[in-house]
Give the backbone structure.
Amino acid sequence: MDFNTFDSRKASETPRALHLKHPGTGKLLYDDGDESKPCRVLVLGIEGETGQSAILQSQRERMKQDRSASEPTPVSDIHDALVKEISPLITGFENVNRGDKPAKAPDDVAWFLALQMIGGTRGQQSFAEQVRAFATDRAAILGNGSAS
C-alpha cells in the first residue's frame, strides 16, 4: 500500500469544496434551491504550509495582547481571532453571492466569515465554524470523506 495517499500535509495545499449549511437549520444550501448549484467554499487544510503559517501568525498576535488573566475575553474577540486564523484558508467561492455579485477570494472572505458570530446552539454553526471544522477534518482534506 502506498502511504503517500495519507500525506495530509501535501493534500492540505489543494483546495477542497465545503458544501455550506444554513447557520440556523443545518440544511445544505443551494443557489435558488437548485440542487445542481451547491453553495460551496474552497478551503485549504490546516495541516499544510498555508494553514500552519496562519496558526503561527494568530498565536503570535495573541501573545502580544496585554490581557489580565482575570479579564474575560468577549465572544466577539474570540470570533475575530478565528476569522483572522482561517481567512487564509479560503481560496474561492461557488454559488455564493454578495448582493447581486459572486463572492470572490480574498476580497469577500472577511465579509463572509463575519456574517454570524460563533456560538450558536447545537447544530447551528456559523460559516466560520463550518470552515474551521472542515479545514481540520483530515478525512475531508484527504478526500476520503466529507465534513459537510
In short: The beta strands are 16-19, 40-43, 90-94, 97-98, 101-102.
